[in-house]
Amino acid sequence: MENHYLFLTGKLAKISLEKVLKDVCQKNDFTYEVIDIGVNVAALATIDMITKKLNPKISHNATKIIIPGRCRGDIDKLSEYFNKQCVRGPEELKDIPSFLGLQGKDLDLSKYDTKIIGEITEAPNMKISEIIIQAEKYKNDGADIIDIGCLPSTEFPHLAETIEELKRNNFMVSVDSLNPDDLLKGANAGADFLLSLQEKTIWIMDEVESIPVIIPDYPEEEENFYKLIDRLISHNKSFIADSILEPINFGFTNSIVRYQRLRKRYPDIEIMMGIGNLTELTHADTAGMNALLFGMASELDISYALCTQVSEHCNKAIIEGNFARRIMHTTKNYNMPPKDISNKLLHLHERKPFPYTTEELKDMWSNVKDKNYRIYVNEDGIHVFNNKNFYTETDAAEFYQYLDIKNDDGHAYYLGMELERAQIAFQLGKRYDQDEMLKWGCSVDISEDDIMKFKKAGHTMRKIKNNSES
Known about the structure:
Layout: E1 3-9, H1 11-25, E2 30-36, H2 47-53, E3 64-67, H3 75-82, E4 86-88, H4 96-101, E5 115-120, H5 128-141, E6 145-149, H6 159-168, E7 172-176, H7 180-188, E8 193-197, E9 211-214, H8 222-234, E10 240-241, H9 252-265, E11 270-274, H10 276-279, H11 286-299, E12 304-308, H12 317-333, H13 358-365, E13 374-378, E14 381-385, E15 390-393, H14 409-428, H15 448-469
Parallel strand pairs: 1-2, 1-3, 3-4, 5-6, 5-12, 6-7, 7-8, 8-9, 9-10, 10-11, 11-12
Antiparallel strand pairs: 13-14, 14-15
């Protein structure tokens, strides 16, 4: 059966939407109908407004109803009203083709292969209550295991009590130390994993039940490491192997090759990779590094990744790793590259930052009938227009000389805020949508409440402006 989509929109967007759909329809198997909701600006429509203005019978031929992306309200209520599935479309008309093209792709980002071990590096200097708070944050960000780091030459008298309290709070726990006494104490307190055992400390395995992460005495001594692994396999011991990821300019590339050789030689063992030696010791944004390393982890079937957040520029390492592992798992299962799946690791840039050309914006301008300023951004700069004028600048401050906002503090504040955000978007190549917060991937946690408060503030400022004009 051919799909028949019913698009609901505003008066100003109706002609443009029909142009986009006409082109898309020729390349896809569906028919469509566009209905004017009865408002000028689609973004100002609400679910309640739609139910008041439209008869439910208009949907009898539709297989799906698509409403404006910024339409506020309970969409389930609308589906019940029309007795048809209702979905929010994209916020911009230019995104309609990709929106329709992705329908039916059921990409599940809930699963992953690589477990994240989140290390609390300053645990000896923290109170137990502080450690629990940190552990809860790491868990919420995506850590599966909380690693308690022990510091060289630093007393940790509350180590056992810390492990016991974490276990009481249902955490999986590891202890990270090269001191055998710390490892034994942590294991006897209930730690699930021990980081890290070498040839000289492998005897600890016979004393405790915790699963050890084993590392080579020296990363380059692969054959000795393999002998240790062979011995543990022959004795039917449970363990996790780590070849040691080294920093850039100190053997990074060779260490990646060692992980590959380790996996090729032992296709069935569990492997861990410590991410921090790259992220902590490289002053570059960590989202891309985490994407690359978790991509390697996906290809090499690495079971665990140790993530640290010591340096301030690494303060999102765990949540970045959480999204990276899910994206890599999903795209691996779908046999596709990790693109067009999620924007969570795109912090400074966008897949499609500029939806409209300047010519298209000027065509849009020709249909504007009111004094309200519209703001758009593309590669040519920041564009501001209303029914009278169309201005383009690359510096937001330049608009002050043009805009009619004298003796209107509220409107000046609103436009100043929007134009500053527009300039940031222009400079970085980010997507700007008026009355919307800029999106920074998973580095900024923006809740639905935050978004609604932001939109409400914008609507309030415009309402004050309109009231002052009248």
